[in-house]
Amino acid sequence: MRILVTGAAGFIGSHLCERLCSLGHQVVGLDCFSPYYARALKELNAQDVRAAGADLLELDLATDDLSNVVEGVQAVYHLAAQPGIAEHVPFCDYERNNVQATHRLLQALLGAPSLKLFVNVGTSSIYGADATRDETAAPEPTSYYGVTKLAAEQLALALCRDRGFPACSLRLFSVYGPRERPEKLYPKLIRAILEG
Length: 196
Fold this sequence. Notes:
Layout: E1 2-6, H1 11-22, E2 26-31, H2 39-52, E3 55-58, H3 67-70, E4 75-78, H4 91-110, E5 117-123, H5 144-163, E6 167-172, H6 185-195
Parallel strand pairs: 1-2, 1-4, 2-3, 4-5, 5-6
C-alpha cells in the first residue's frame, strides 16, 4: 500500500514510518522541519526514516504544491502540526500549520481516487485543563494548540460527514518513548534523575 505520513521527521511520525516500512508498505514521508525545536534532532529522526526505506520530502503543507505527493496515495496519516502549548508562539503559526495545512492537504486529497483512509492525529489538548476525561467529553481547549487541532480534526470529519471522505481522527494522550522532544515531561524527568 502507498502511504503518506505527514510530520514524518517528528517523534511519532518517524516511528510510524519505520513501522509501516517494516510491514512492507511504500511510505512517503513529509516534513517542513519547522523551527519549533532543533532541526538537528529532526534530522536524526529523518535518517532513521530513510534507513527504514521511506522516501522523505521537505515540504510545507501550507504553501507547497501537494498534487504530486498525493498521487496514488491509498492512506494518509496526518501528524504534521505546530506542536506545543508555548506562549511565545503566535496564534498565526498555529493557525497556519494546523488549520491551513490540514485544509490544503484535505483539498488535495479530494481529487485522489485511490485514497481509502485518512487518519487525522489529534491531541488530548482539545479537552483543555482537564485532559483526564474520556472521549465522550465535550472539547474545551484552553490553548492555541488545542483550538487549532480541534479545528483541523473537524475539517476532516466535516468532509467525512458531507462527502463520505474516508476519515477518522485519533486523540493521543501522553505519548512517550525514544526520540521524544526534549522539552516534554518524560525527557525532563529522566534528565533530572540523571543529573541528581
